[in-house]
Design goal:
6 helices, two-stranded parallel ribbon, 251 residues, alpha/beta, two-stranded parallel sheet
Length: 251
């Protein structure tokens, strides 16, 4: 027959159980805290970068500080006015963002329309100079949307427009990087949406007898660049692939 437990006895037993649990918990291994385990030091064989537009709600100062502390060495798609903040943390901008003028320069309306060229040249020339002055090497650009324009014509128009700034880009040692985008998920109607948009045709745009250099390794951007021969600067659209900073040997 079970005897009834008084209230005083129940409280005493409960207190004893709680104390036992507390002691046992204290003896268990404590979970590792972030401050006790700082990030492993990277080897420096790969230069990691993050893209600014992925973190629009984070202040640039905070993003730079966190990137530096994690061993990230660069932040992509910044404007020249952001360079002082970036350099304050010892970081670089591997790919500088595009300039705009009116509604031109962004993904939908760019180099594939001849009527855009005059204004785009006005926007890109000072941007190229600011990129070079900061010691950076790459500036992004876009084809623009098709809006009914044939791919062959769009390519030719891009080449004609970029020829107007390639001499300056070469002089400043800045590479113009034309973005390749996936229109099946986003950026509907963007013209440079597949490899075949440029690679089968670019050789027809290179002056006869000219030499050109290509940049190997791959990242997400297809490149429009120029190369120097002993006699002249080749002003043309050359399609290559550019990867930034990767070297053998791991991270």
């Amino acid at each position: 027959m079970n005897r009834p437990i008084s209230r005083r006895t129940a409280i005493r037993k409960a207190a004893g159980f709680t104390a036992t649990v507390a002691v046992a918990t204290a003896l268990l291994p404590k979970p590792a805290l972030a401050q006790d385990n700082p990030p492993a030091k990277l080897k420096g064989n790969i230069n990691y970068a993050v893209c600014r537009w992925c973190y629009p709600k984070i202040k640039l100062d905070d993003l730079c500080a966190a990137s530096r502390d994690m061993g990230i060495t660069g932040i992509d798609l910044l404007q020249p006015e952001d360079f002082p903040t970036l350099k304050k943390y010892g970081l670089v901008c591997p790919m500088v963002s595009f300039p705009t003028i009116g509604d031109l320069g962004g993904i939908p309306r760019a180099w594939n329309r001849v009527e855009h060229h005059d204004l785009l040249v006005q926007a890109y020339e000072p941007q190229l100079r600011q990129v070079a002055a900061a010691g950076f090497e790459r500036l992004i650009c876009f084809s623009g949307n098709r809006a009914g324009l044939a791919d062959e014509q769009g390519l030719e128009n891009c080449a004609l427009g970029l020829q107007r700034i390639l001499t300056l880009a070469e002089k400043l040692k800045v590479t113009l990087c034309m973005e390749l985008l996936n229109i099946k998920r986003t950026h509907k109607d963007y013209q440079r949406d597949h490899v075949a948009w440029a690679t089968p045709w670019w050789s027809d745009l290179v002056p006869s007898g000219s030499s050109c250099s290509t940049i190997s390794s791959t990242c997400k951007s297809w490149m429009a660049t120029c190369a120097t021969s002993s006699a002249k600067i080749i002003n043309t659209l050359i399609t290559t692939i550019q990867g930034w900073g990767a070297r053998p040997g791991g991270n």
